Amino acid sequence: MSTLWTPGGEVPVDDGRGRSAPPPPQTPTEAPEDPLAGLSDEERAQAEELAQQLAEAREQIARTPAAVVVANHAMGLYELGAIHLSQQPPNLEEARLAIDALGVLVDGLKDRLGDNEATLRDALHQIRMAFVQVSRATEGTGEE
Asked: What is the pLDDT of residues 21-37, one digit of tens each?
């Protein structure tokens, strides 16, 4: 016997081995419970305001070109790598992961990052050079 995932839950299905499947679960016919039930009027108003703000933020992100959002995340990886390199002692393994992730994005999305591609390529080159310099300096002090 196998199960099939459906929006209403998992439903057993006959897998052809001659066993009968139990009937599928009954879906409720009544409306779903109000997720804000039990909140005071003030709490309900706050929850509804937060939901509206979230909907507006999602709409703004949907209007933003994906290349801009990806570039923003890529620069976050650059910053993460720089933070780990600037620690005393530097955290080279964490920096390497962030820098490698940035490289995967920039190199893997070649010619798809729009106007930000040149900036991201320069940033990747700079952070890789910084990694090499910090790694060499760390080797000289015995820290790692």
From this structure: 566 666 666 667 888 88
Mean pLDDT over 45-61 rounds to: 94
Query: Is 4 part of any domain?
Result: no
Written as six digits, the tokens of 9 are 């839950």
Give the alpha-carbon dihedral of 77, 80, 82, 85, to 10 degrees: -130
**Total number of domains constituting the chain:** 1
* 47 belongs to a structural domain: no
Task: Show Cβ contacts of residue 68 under 8 Å, excluding neighbours closer than 6 positions.
Answer: 114, 116
In a domain, residue 15? The reply is: no
The model's pTM is 0.67
